[in-house]
Amino acid sequence: MKVLRFRWQNKEAWGRIEGEKIFPLPGHEATFGGNTELSIKEVQVLPPTLPTKIVAVGLNYRDHAEELGMALPEAPLIFLKPPSAVIGPEDNIVLPQGVGRVDYEAELAVVIGKTARKVPPEKAREYILGYTCFNDVTARDLQKKDGQWTRAKSFDTFAPIGPWIETDLDPSDLRVRAYVNGELRQDSSTTNLIFPVPELVSFISYVMTLYPGDVIATGTPPGVGPLAPGDVVEVEVEGVGRLVNFVRGE
Question: How high is the mean pLDDT in each 10-residue block of the chain (250 residues)?
């Protein structure tokens, strides 16, 4: 099931999407104003979750590590992106003044469904609501300059997510791709993940409690590159859909 969050007639609502039709989730019928369904063309699609935190994973694709000539990490390399960076489908990624190169990074994102603390890997799927597309936008020059990643990863608009959450999906073999202005830039599979989804959920839950709606961004494949004002960047995850965002200068 694809779960969608949207705004319609100045009301925020939740529904499930089938094709171009949106149907109310149980308990959300009133937000549809007496309609039994809505068209996706008449609503504003919002970020499908409002996380308390985004836990992202660095260097988690074998082919990306090979591209960079780096050794595989012995444990997941995790960092945080703030919820203030979140934007939704067709929102603008804003390139801050004076930051130099800003890159796209296509990723599969995991959305947590219930509070998770010290979860063993074999039980991780019980705590996952579903999966969505994520773009780990990064100010690359600042990442290199600072020697740590907080500033480079945390600007407003640097966490596009969406367009919806797919709740029925096996994350072990999904194609992850990025396009810029229609040109394919990244193309790999989650079979190349060094640490697969259950291991990531478990590892992170032993470090920090994960709450419903929190996001784990599972890492990016090879082919990251710069964005420029006027670009259209798309992240596509097999079985989920395509997240489209526009790029503009500040």
Answer: 95 93 91 91 96 96 83 93 98 96 98 98 98 98 93 98 98 98 97 97 98 98 97 98 97
Got the DSSP string for 163-230? Answer: EEEESS--TTS-EEEEEETTEEEEEEEGGGBSS-HHHHHHHHHTTS-B-TT-EEE----S--EE--TT
Place of tokens 């710069």: 226
Specify the DSSP class assigned to residue 61: B
Residues of the chain with CATH 3.90.850.10: 54-249
54-249 domain in CATH 3.90.850.10?
yes
Q: Counting every residue, how long is the chain?
A: 250
Query: For residue 190, which of 219, 213, 163, 166 has the smallest C-alpha distance?
Result: 219
Residue type, 146: D
Nearest to 105 by CA among 140, 65, 67: 140
pTM: 0.96
